[in-house]
Design goal:
single chain, 313 residues, mainly alpha, MetI-like fold, 2 domains, two-stranded antiparallel ribbon, globular
């Protein structure tokens, strides 16, 4: 028997012995794996509709294949291009204003000396993460409604003018970005605080001995210490520049006034796919969105590795 065959036999023996010893752990994996296959991977077979002239009466596999005709139809229409550009615009603004906020907030909380204040602040800023978008949207609609909103009532009582925050496209987009940052910054702050906690305290002590001030420590120790976490989360967020939360957009939007500003891929898929019954066009748009997201993640990961970072993959 050759050396390679002998090593292969030993590996198989060790694998069998390991499985026999820890079979309860493998048995516990059966249910979550079945859930993943049934609800995560099996529905992917529906992506075939993106390449078919789908008819409900014929079903997915009974409908005729039409190649890339659905994609050609989408990208030849001004509405589809406008939806993609609007989604890209809102998500880039979300990334521009929303991504740095948890970093800044985490550094500010870390620099606080009062432990009680830290705990209270973390709890308060993290609470919006647990609220549904329906509740969040209801809160801000009550605050910002033109005629009956609390903000406009107070502004009018002080001699100011009422501002149509939720009825003007540009103002609605500002509210959309602000609400998104407010809702998500608590979760990101906890992640960055955990990364800051992993930085050795000896580095700060040595910097203090060398006469470094608070801002110098932040710039030369804290920020480099969390750089890996920042890069990882940035890569993940870049994969969502064409994604959008249907609940967030639909809850905050007014279809009669700001439909243009809120016309993103998520609402387009809902309107075209479910409301109009054009499932093949909606599937094609969703597939395009996901493919672009994966490509952006791969490109960003390759770029991060070329810059000396560990990357994501």
């Amino acid at each position: 028997m050759s050396v390679a065959a002998s090593r292969k036999g030993k590996k198989a023996f060790h694998a069998g012995a390991y499985f026999k010893r820890y079979w309860p752990l493998y048995a516990m994996l059966v249910l979550p794996m079945a859930f993943c296959l049934l609800f995560k991977y099996w529905p992917m077979t529906g992506l075939a509709m993106a390449f078919k002239d789908y008819k409900v009466v014929r079903g997915i596999w009974g409908s005729k294949w039409n190649g890339f005709s659905n994609f050609q139809y989408l990208f030849s229409r001004a509405e589809s291009i406008g939806v993609i550009l609007q989604t890209l615009k809102l998500n880039l603004l979300d990334l521009l204003f929303g991504f740095p906020m948890p970093i800044i907030l985490a550094i500010m909380i870390n620099e606080c000396r009062s432990k009680a204040f830290k705990r209270i602040t973390q709890t308060v800023i993290y609470l919006p993460h647990f609220l549904s978008w329906v509740i969040i949207a209801s809160m801000f609609i009550m605050l910002l409604r033109t005629e009956t909103g609390i903000v406009n009532i107070v502004s009018a009582s002080l001699g100011g003018q009422k501002v149509p925050y939720l009825e003007d496209n540009h103002l609605w987009q500002i509210v959309y970005i602000f609400v998104g940052v407010w809702q998500s910054m608590g979760w990101g702050t906890i992640i960055y605080l955990a990364a800051i906690t992993g930085i050795s305290s000896e580095l700060y002590e040595a910097a203090t001995v060398d006469g470094a001030g608070r801002f110098a420590k932040i710039w030369h120790i804290t920020l480099p210490g969390i750089r890996g976490t920042v890069v990882t989360l940035l890569i993940m967020n870049l994969g969502r520049v064409l994604g959008s939360s249907f609940e967030r957009v639909n809850s905050l939007s007014n279809p009669y006034v700001v439909m243009k500003g809120a016309n993103v891929i998520a609402t387009y898929i809902y309107r075209v796919g479910l409301s109009q019954g054009k499932y093949h066009y909606a599937t094609a748009m969703g597939l395009f969105q996901n493919v672009i997201g994966i490509l952006l993640i791969l490109i960003a990961d390759r770029f991060a590795k070329s810059m000396g970072e560990s990357g994501l993959i």
